[in-house]
C-alpha cells in the first residue's frame, strides 16, 4: 500500500498542481478549458451502441442519516380538471444529491480558484466562478475507474483511501488511459454498500475516496472534471485538522477542476463491464443559476 | 385557411391519440420513438464539436411573465467563511416552481388532463398531494438523446420575431422544412422558434396570458402526429395564446401531452441555436437533455444542449 503524505507534502502538492493564471488571470472556467470542440467531436464517436446510462441518484425527498436536508417537493395544484403543478426546493451540497460543485464552493487561505477572494461570494451569491460558467454544458469523453473491481470487492468501506498506484492499476485493468479534457469518474461502490448495509452519516462514519497523494496524478492527466459516487475526498481526512478535504481544495481551488459529488455509478459499472470498455460520451448540463455555488445534475453516459 | 373549428379540433384529439400504442401500462409516450439506433445516428451529427445551450438562466427576478421567480438564497457566504471550523466554504439553496412562462422546463405527461384523464387513459386522480404516481417526470430519467431539428419561423418570414397574434400553421412547417433543407422524422426532438426570447430581450417580459403569444395553430396537430416526433419544444409554450377556442385554452398542450404522449419543452431560448444553425448551414444536430430525477414531479427545469 502506498504511503500517505506528510503535511508538508500536501502543502507542496497544492503548489505543484496550481493552475492559477494558466488560462489568463480573469478565467473562471478552470480545467473545463481543456475540453476543445475537437475533443467533443471525438467523444461523440464513442456513442456507438446508443445505450444511455444516467449517473444521478433520484432527488431524495426523505430524511436519512446522509440526508438531513431533503429536497422539499410540494404540490401547488393537484389533478383534475385542468392541470397539476408543483414546486421543489433544494440545497444541493452535502452527501445526498448528485450535484456539480462550482469553483466558488470552497476556499483556501481566503481565495477561490485563480486567486479570486472568498468575498466574491456575498449574500446574493457568487460574483466569480459561479456554476453558470458551465452554462453550455460539459460534453466530452468520460472515463470510469472502478476501484471495487480492481480490489475484487463489492464496495470500499468508509475511511478507505485510494492511492495513485490504484488509479494506474485500474487503467491497466480497464484498458484505458485518462487523457487531457476527460471527465474522470471514480467508483467506490458507495451506493452498492448503502443498498446492502443501509445509509450512514459520512460526517460521523466516513466515506471512501481519494487520498491527497492522487492530486499530482490528476493534475498531470489534465482532467476537465472529477466525479465520484462519494465526494472524491476520503473521510475522515488522514490530514486533519490542517487539511479536512484536501481533494476538494486541490481540485476546486488549486486546479480549477469542477467536482461531481454523489453520482450513482452502479449502472455505469454494469454497462462498462457489458460493453468491455470504460470510455464513453459524457454529457452534463447544469442548470443556469447565475450566482449559484452548485447545481443538481443528471449526468449521462452514452456508450 | 381559417383556423380549424372546435369540431375539427375534437377530431384531431381522436385522430392523434397514441393511447395503447406502446401498451396499456406505458408512461413514456412518444419517447418510445427514440431507439438506440436513432441515438447512435444522432451522435454522427457531431462534427465541429460546437455545443449550444437552449436554456434561459433560471429567472430569479419578478417580471410580468414571472410572478413566481426562482428563490435563490445563500446559506453560507464567502466573506464570513474563514471562521468555519473545518473548511471555509460557500453554499446556497434554491426553490423553483418550473411551470409557467419563465423557466425553461420539461413538462411531464401528468401535467395536463382532458376529461379527467392524462396520457394513456390514466386518471387525473393519480396526481395526489404527494405528487404523480403515473407519468411523472422521472420516466425520462435516462435522458433524452436524439436528433434535434429546428424550424426557425422568424427566419422563414424574414422578421426578428413573430408578433403576439401570430399562429403558425402546418403549411408554415412545410415551408420551413423546405427552406432549411431538413425533413422532420420519427424520434426527432422538434423545436419551433417564434423569436419570443429575442422579443423579450429587446422589449422586456409581458403577461402572455393576457397579451398573447405566438405559437402553433391547431392545424399543426395532425402534422406533428404524422411525423412521430419524440419531444416538442419552443421558445414560447408551443400553444398560440389565446387559442381562439372557448373550451380549450391550451389545445396544443392537451393534444400533445394527453393524446400523443408527447413531452413538451416550454420557454427554451432558441436564439443561439438559430445563429448556430445558420452558421453551420444545417438545422439538424445532436440533442441532449437530462431532466432531474424528481420521482413524483410534474416537470423539471432543464438545460437542453445542441451539438454540431
Task: Map the helices and strands.
The complex is a heterodimer of chains A (303) and B (308).
Chain A lengths: L6 H10 L20 H8 L7 E3 L17 E6 L7 E6 L8 E3 L19 E2 L2 E2 L11 E9 H5 L9 E2 L1 H11 L8 E5 L2 H8 L4 H4 L3 E2 L4 H7 L3 E4 L17 H10 L2 E4 L4 H10 L3 E6 L9 E3 L3 E3 L1
Parallel strand pairs in A: 7-9, 8-10, 9-11, 11-12
Antiparallel strand pairs in A: 1-15, 2-3, 4-12, 4-14, 5-6, 7-13, 13-15
Helix pairs in contact in A: 1-8
Chain B lengths: L5 H10 L20 H8 L7 E3 L17 E6 L14 E6 L8 E3 L19 E2 L2 E2 L11 E9 H5 L9 E2 L1 H11 L8 E5 L2 H8 L4 H4 L3 E2 L3 H8 L3 E4 L16 H10 L2 E4 L4 H10 L3 E6 L9 E3 L3 E3 L1
Parallel strand pairs in B: 7-9, 8-10, 9-11, 11-12
Antiparallel strand pairs in B: 1-15, 2-3, 4-12, 4-14, 5-6, 7-13, 13-15
Give a written overview of the molecule.
The complex is a heterodimer of chains A (303) and B (308). Chain A has 303 residues and is α/β, with parallel strands linked by helices. Chain A has a single domain, classed as 3-Layer(bba) Sandwich (Glucose Oxidase, domain 1), CATH 3.50.30. Helix content of chain A is 24%, strand content 20%. In chain A, helix 1 runs parallel beside helix 8. The two termini of chain A are 33 Å apart. The model of chain A has no long low-confidence stretch (mean pLDDT 96). Chain B has 308 residues and is α/β, with parallel strands linked by helices. Helix content of chain B is 24%, strand content 19%. In chain B, the strands form four sheets. A nine-stranded mixed beta sheet of chain B has the order 1-15-13-7-9-11-12-4-14, sandwiched between helices. Chain B is globular and about 70 Å long. At the A-B interface, helix 2, strand 1, strand 2, strand 3 and strand 5 of A face helix 2, strand 1, strand 2, strand 3 and strand 5 of B.
The fourth-level CATH homologous superfamily of chain A is: Putative cyclase
Biggest beta sheet summary of chain B: 9 strands, mixed
By DSSP (H or I, 4+ residues per run), the number of helices of chain B equals 9
Report the sheet-strand fraction of chain A: 15-25%
At the fourth CATH level, what is the homologous superfamily of the largest domain in chain B?
A: Putative cyclase
For the biggest sheet of chain A, the summary is: 9 strands, mixed
CATH domain fold name of chain A: Glucose Oxidase, domain 1
Kindly report the average pLDDT value of chain B. Answer: 96
Might you state the CATH topology name of the largest domain in chain B?
Glucose Oxidase, domain 1
Q: Tell me, briefly, the overall form of chain A.
A: globular
CA radius of gyration of chain A is 19 Å
Helical residue percent band of chain B: 10-25%
